[in-house]
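During the no-cost extension, the postdoctoral fellow (Dr. R.K.) reprocessed legacy sequence entries with the updated structure-token encoder. One reprocessed record is reproduced below for audit purposes.
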Amino acid sequence: MPSVTWHHLPASVKYARQQCLTRQSADCYRLHTARFMHQHSALTFRAAYPHEAPHMQALIIIDIQNDYFPGGKMELCGSEAAASNAALLLKAFRKAGKPVFHVQHISLAPTATFFLPGTTGALIHESLAPLTGETVVEKHFPNSFRDTPLLGLLQAQNITDIAIAGMMTHMCVDTTTRAAFDLGFTCHLAHDACATRDLAHDGKTVCAADVQTAYMAALGQVFAQVRSTQELCAAISQSR
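Re-encoded structure tokens follow.
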């Protein structure tokens, strides 16, 4: 793995160093540098070993809730197929005795039209219903870490590598994956255990399949190892 020198460090880290030295805080600079080094190492490793079996310590399932399914207030394209794959991942993690975190979105905004408090649409889909003892994290924003205990829960168990599945790909899955990467986690994203919908911009409609492809392609460049449910389940089985 190539070494990282001062010239490799981004401007943000160099600026942080100057600020930290001004404050006579070496620990501050080490924190910024260590964070960059972790991310640089992960990127270098993925580039050098693209087929290396992923090592996952926990599963995060994002917003697989009733309103995203047929008959719900925000039906997605392919939600049932994605949920079936997410259920396979969930089964594999349970069998391996690894932690599972269910993220449930409850919409509190006055203009919200789905995932409303106290409605059946906001309930986690029965195919992925949490078992007794499994953690459910309630959120109110696209980022699963914002104003939730998720980060602390992961840190308390020394979890650094996570698998992610859920809905919607272009919203909460994308936002949470990017946030997790920025927090120093190595992310493994199950592309076929996620679902999205058609989007429109500037008078043009982008079909859900193209939305899915574009977001997975972007996340796979830097923020996550994007793999199939079958690949991730096989890796979980091998790690037991």
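Helices lie at 11-22, 26-48, 79-96, 150-156, 169-182, 208-222, 229-239. The first strand starts at residue 58 and ends at 62. The remaining legacy entries will be reprocessed before the final report is submitted.
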